[in-house]
Every structure is written in structure tokens, then in C-alpha cells.
Amino acid sequence: MTLLIGALTIGLILSLLALAIYISYRVFDIADITVDGSITLGAAICAVLIVRNTNPVLATLGGFAGGLAAGLVTGILQARFRINSLLSGILVMTALYSVNLHVMGKSNVPLLSTRSFITWAEQFGLWWFGRPEVSLLGWLVGVRDLLALLGSLGIVAATALALYWFFRTEVGTAMRAAGDNPQMIRALGVNVELYRILGLALANGLAALSGALLAQYQGFADAQMGLGMVVWGLASVIIGESLTGSRSLGLALYGAVAGSVLFRLLVAIALRWGLNPNDLKLITALFVFAALVLPQLLKMPKRGSAAAAAQAPNQKS
Amino acid sequence: MPQPLTSLNPPAGAMLALHDVRKTFNAGTVNEVRALRGVNLSLPAGAFLVILGGNGSGKSTLLNAVAGAFRVDEGRIHIAGQDVTRWPEHARARLVGRVFQNPFTGTAPTMSIAENLALAARRGLRRGLGWALPGRLKAELRDQVSQLAMGLEDRLDNAIGSLSGGQRQALTLLMANWLKPELLLLDEHTAALDPKSADQVIRLTSQLITRHRLTTLMVTHSMQQAVNLGDRIVMMHQGSVACQFEGADKQRLGVPDLLARFEELRRRDMLDETAATLLHDTYI
User: Fold this and answer.
1) What pLDDT is attached to residue B194?
2) Which structural domains are found in chain B, ordered by start?
3) Chain A contacts of B123, Cβ < 8 Å?
4) Is the ipTM of this complex over 0.90?
5) Do residue A181 and residue B108 have CB atoms under 8 angstroms apart?
6) Can you give the C-alpha Rg of chain A in angstroms?
7) CB nearest A171 (choices: B91, B104, B127)
8) Residues of B in contact with A192 (CB under 8 A)
9) Which helix (DSSP H) or strand (DSSP E) does residue A141 occupy?
């Protein structure tokens, strides 16, 4: 049960990352690898502030702001300096590695006996339930874990709802259009480059927020923690689309969150069954590869056979 | 850039004025194209100008220069009395409504019909954090879309990508005119449609233009459209205005007259070429 709650909590925290990838990959069609760096940046800023005894809310928002800035830089590299979108992401991610080490001062910042969302959850749980563990459906569960799960759920739900609202405002619909058809929305008076910069800033802010929460949950920030997170987010978004479809905005956002939670659950089960943790990134990458390629492979035989039936001579080409 | 005042001021009352507009693509390379070679044009408010021309004559380039798709090398462009020569494309959108040749260019395919129209309802205006589709706008959308008589008013929440080219083009027209533009630019907007949809879109076009007294610039390669529509014609050739018809001349003009003009231009070209070879062979 504790394992399940842990998997759900991490899945929820990382669903903010999935929402970030939804913005960069689905709205703007950019595989923005900056998030590998900005998730760590969010964790680093938040951890350092918490160690200095800053209010956890401010520390978390500080991490979010760091991500905004990172996304802003990537966006400006793309829009103002016309650098290829993948390359500008790689540049900023690489630069962020050093920035993160400078922010933390070392490669790892532990959050032991410091005030964070998690200690708040623990204290509140003790005060509310009067003991460190409660029984849930017959299982003994730590109140700290239970409240961390509920807290993450609240934060994620609020963020997803805010995004849903934003993407239905005048600015938000214009942003979606800027990703969908830049020429069309330019002819309607929107500065597409500016909106792209704002979109990438928002995406990286969310990734950093995810990092800040993750650092508090796992009790440390680490310079390596962002590695391969883009692929993780892509996997979540893809799973989410197969769950809910992408017909409407609300379903797509809900799908990204659900996809992240489901993916984390699957990984937790696989790890419990004896999957070597070292293989995790390989398997995630293979999964995304399969998800990208399979739809085409499934379509091909149909088209091939139809063409073969219609005109056999053309089959060679 | 100091220039004589006379050339900076557009002719009084002109909605669109081009003064000696020049544009060369890929200047200084083997692919150099002198697309516009000094175009002068003046269009009074409410006028409907049809631009004709063969492939590579510069007619679409001219339209794009007005829309701001690129900066012109030389010359001045005034729209509604404002010098827009250095304005970026999105800033000119405040004055200009556009319909493109490709029906896919004018609409955002994954967004709904209603959302596309709502985007157009704020063309050139500040966009804020207000609801993009408030209730009163929805009612208005429904009303306007039902006037297209395409049965789209019950599909406002469908993605626009699921519609046919003709339907998308009709909606793009509606979007370009949602807020009355100072200038309407139509870039061969029926060229990619089947004849029936093209007719439908052309009918809608002239309806909207007459009803709202729009100043219009329409590029076409259809002589029939040029003869039927508009109150003046400009024929482009090799990046400049080859001939112009207005008023009674334009009304009398038929397709055979236009074809004859085209043939004349083409013959002059061929003569140029043979003359050039002749000179080349004789002297080199």
C-alpha cells in the first residue's frame, strides 16, 4: 500500500512535467529538451531556499520562476536568433547543468530536518489523526504519505484547471493557434514569436515546479535528476492520448495527468517484479519509440493492400 | 531616410498607395529574382482591384508586399493613410483582412469552428485573459455562420480540419471580414477549389464586398473572374504594371480582350529573347 501511494504521488508530481511536455510538444510541436535542465533547476532553487529556511511556498514558487526564465532563454534563442528548436533546447539544457551546480554549490542538496511541504504534511497529519499511521482499507498507511498524495493531487488539479482556463482565454486560444497554424494567426494580428517564447517559458516553469515538488518529496535535489525527463514526459503524454484521445482540450490535459500516473504505476510494478532500475531509461525510450512508430506501421499494410488490389504495377514504387 | 515630401505623402483619399515598390529575392546570387521592379498603385476607398498576370509576373509577391510577409527593398506602402512600409506582418493585420490560396492556410485545423472565428473577432486588437468564447459572441457566430447556408451553424464545436476546402475558404472569408478591414486581400482564393465551391466562394466574396463597401485587392489567374468582378484591373508583367483598366474601359472589357493583351505581352517577350540570341550570335 505504501508503495502504491508512493507511486501515485510521484506520478502526480511528474504529471506537471507531462503538462509541460503537452504544451511544448503538442501545442507547439517542439521536443523541448530544456525541461531536462529546468526540472533540476526548479529542484535546486527550491532545495537551496528551503535549506536557508525560506517558506516552502516561496521556495517552490522560486523554483517555478527559475523554470520560467530557462524557457524564456530557449524561446528567445529560437525566435530572436533563429536557432533550430532542438538545438536551442540542447544549448540551454547544457548550460543549465553548470547553472544548477552553481545554485546548489555541490551535486546534491539533502533536505533533512528542514521545513518543507513534506514536514508540513507530517505535522498536520499528526495533529489531525493524532498518530503517525492510519488504517486505510485494512492497510496501515503513514499519514505523511497519505497527505503528500492528497497535497500533490490538489496542486496538480489546480494547475491543470488553471491551464484549461488559460487555454480558453483570448491569449490562450491565440497561443494554441500559434502552434497550430502560425501563418493564419499572424494574419489575425498575433506576434507568433512572442507567443512561442511565452509558451516555452510556461512549459519550463511547470517542469521546474514539478522538480521543486519532487525534491521536497524525495528529500533531496540532485544535479542528475532531470536526465531523460523529456522522454518520460513524452511517454506520459502519449499514454494519456491513448487513454482519453485528443479530441478536446480538457480531455488532452486530463489525459496527460492520467498518463503520467499510470506510467509511474506500471514502472513501480515492473520494478517490484525485478526489473533492473538501470534499464528504466532504455525501456522508456523504447516505449516512446514504439508509440511514435507503431501507428505508422499499423497503417501501412492497409494502404499497401488497398493499393495492391487497385493497381498492381505501382507496387514497386 | 530623407526623401522628398511629395513621395512620402500618399495621394489624398487613397486607401492603398504603393510608391515605386521594389523587391529582389536572393540578390547577388544565381537565383536572383527581381520580383517587383517599381510598382506604383493607388486605390481609393471602396475600390475593388483585380490583379491579373502569368506565373512569375509578381502578382502574388505584390500582394504579400502589401500584407507585410517581407520587407520591400525600396519604395513606400501606405494603407489607410498610414505608412506601413516598416510594419511587421502581424501589426498590419489591424488594417488588413486576408484570404489565402491554400484553404489550409487560413484556419487552425485542430481548433473548432467557433474558436477560429473567435480568434478572428479580435484581429489586430489586444488579447487579454477574458474568455475567448463568451455567450454573446457564440450567438453572433451562430447567426453569421448560418448566413453562409452551409449547415455549419450546428457544427460550431467541430474541428475546422474536418471541413472541405470550400467550407474552410468560406469561413476564412467570414473571418477576414468579421471586423471590417480597411483593406481586403484575396490571393487566388478559389484556385484550389473545385468549380462548384469556387462559384460559391466567389458569390460570397462579391456579396461581402458590396455589402460592406470593402476596399479590395484580389489576385487571380482566371480571366473570367477578372472580367466579372471588380471595378478595375491591373495586369502585371515581369514585376511591374503592364496595363490598367478602370471605369468604362473595365466595364467594356471581355475575356478575348484580356487574352489578346496577354498574347501581346508574351510576343514582346519572345521577341526580346530572339533579339537577344541574334545579338549574342552576331557579336560574341
Assistant:
1) 92
2) 5-95+181-283 (3.40.50.300)
3) 188-189
4) no
5) yes
6) 21
7) B127
8) 90
9) strand A139-142
Q: What is the pLDDT of residues A57-112, one digit of tens each?
A: 999 999 999 999 999 999 999 999 999 999 999 999 999 999 999 999 999 999 98
In chain A, the residue whose alpha carbon lies closest to the alpha carbon of B161 is A180
Q: Which residue of A has its CA nearest to B68?
A: A187
Cell numbers at A68, concatenated: 520560467
Find which of B113, B116, B186 to mutate to test the A interface (most A CBs within 10 Å of its CB): B116
In chain B, the residue whose alpha carbon lies closest to the alpha carbon of A180 is B108
For residue B116, list chain A residues with Cβ-Cβ distance below 8 A: 177
Residues in chain A whose Cβ is within 8 Å of chain B: 166, 168-174, 176-177, 180-181, 183-192
Query: Both ends of chain A: CA-CA distance in Å?
Result: 57
Which H or E element spans position B194? none
Please write the tens of the pLDDT for every residue from A125-145.
Answer: 888 888 778 777 777 888 888
Cβ contact, residue pair A189, B131, below 8 Å: no
Cell of A136: 486505510
**pLDDT band with cut points at 50, 70 and 90 for residue A315:** very low
Tell me the mean pLDDT per 10 residues along chain B, length 284: 47 84 91 90 93 87 94 94 94 95 93 95 92 90 90 91 93 94 94 91 93 93 86 89 84 83 78 66 64
pTM: 0.87
Cα A150 to its chain centre, rounded Å, is 19
| Grid cell locating A26 | 503538442
| Residues sharing a CB contact under 8 Å with residue B119, sequence separation 6 or more, in sequence order | A173, A174, A177, A185, A188, B108, B111, B132, B175
Contact between B129 and A170 using a beta-carbon 8 Å cutoff: yes
Compute the distance between CA of residue A156 and CA of residue B246 in angstroms, rounded to an integer.
Answer: 65
Beta bridge partners of B15: none
Q: List pLDDT tens digits, range A213-253.
A: 999 999 999 999 999 899 999 999 999 988 887 778 999 99
User: Residue B232 in contact with residue B49, Cβ under 8 Å?
Assistant: yes
Alpha carbons B183 and B94: distance in angstroms, whole number = 10
Which element (helix H / strand E) includes B134? none
